[in-house]
Amino acid sequence: MTDAPTESVVLPLLGALSKAPTLDGIMQGEPDALVFAAVTAVIAAAVAAILLFARKPSAAMKADEFQPFRLIEKEEISHDTRKFTFALQTPKKLLGLPVGQHISLRFTDKDGKNHQRSYTPVSGDETPGTVTFVIKVYKAGVHPKFPDGGKMSQHLDSLSIGDTVDMRGPKGHLTYLGQGKFTVKQMRKPLSERCAKHFGMIAGGTGITPCLQVIHAILRDSKDTTTTVSLLYANQSKCKPLCVIKLIISSAFTLTNVSYCP
Fold first, then answer.
1. From the annotation, which residues make up the binding site for FAD?
2. Using one digit for the tens of pLDDT, what is the confidence trace for 115-165?
3. Fewer CB in 10 Å around end: N or C, the chain?
4. What is the total count of domains within the chain?
5. What tens digit of pLDDT does each residue of 231-254 get?
6. Which pTM was predicted?
7. 160: containing domain
8. Are 131 and 119 spatial neighbours (Cβ–Cβ below 8 Å)?
9. Binding site, annotated residues
């Protein structure tokens, strides 16, 4: 269902009710009255469904089609980590990404070759109209095993405000449903649903974003008072991980029991 106005659909349906038979006719079982009552019930259900879906903004992402999204904000978190915010199609658009899933980004280099990488956003449907990523930039000449650096991350770092990147999603094998429930899709096996009271997570660097996506969802659910999370996080420096975590989730909760082991 699109964001288009629904008056052209709803008004004709409501107009059909203008020549209603009397209540006495319906109660006495008159054929025309009974038919009208049945039709009225169907129309009422249709109107309710139209209004319900019309009020819900459609999702921005498509799983089978890349779409361009415009960069509207770029922030330097550390010397090699950036925060990128892209605009969705309209201010009311929802990302439409299930918790636990990620998004594929794509660009074409000067030689016409496509490069594609998947990232987990740090924002969701709670921020309509935008999608935000925190990404480490792997620069050329820094790591001897990867002399060219990361093609996608360097491309993103080179973007100017107003430039676009192609994206599609959702994709992934795990979806968090809430209340400790989640589904897992394994190769050549049917989708299975599982449940856990405590989540143990291990992450390193900006690879923490998939973990934070699930943590954020757990903490936003005021009805979930039993699901708990432990996070073991590794990073090269003491300052950077705390800066990244606080930047992403400071509005959701306060960090406790944080220790640093050099």
1. 117, 119, 134, 136, 151-153, 209
2. 999 999 988 888 999 999 999 999 998 888 888 999 999 999 999 999 999
3. C
4. 2
5. 888 877 665 555 555 555 554 555
6. 0.71
7. 67-249
8. no
9. 117, 119, 134, 136, 151-153, 209
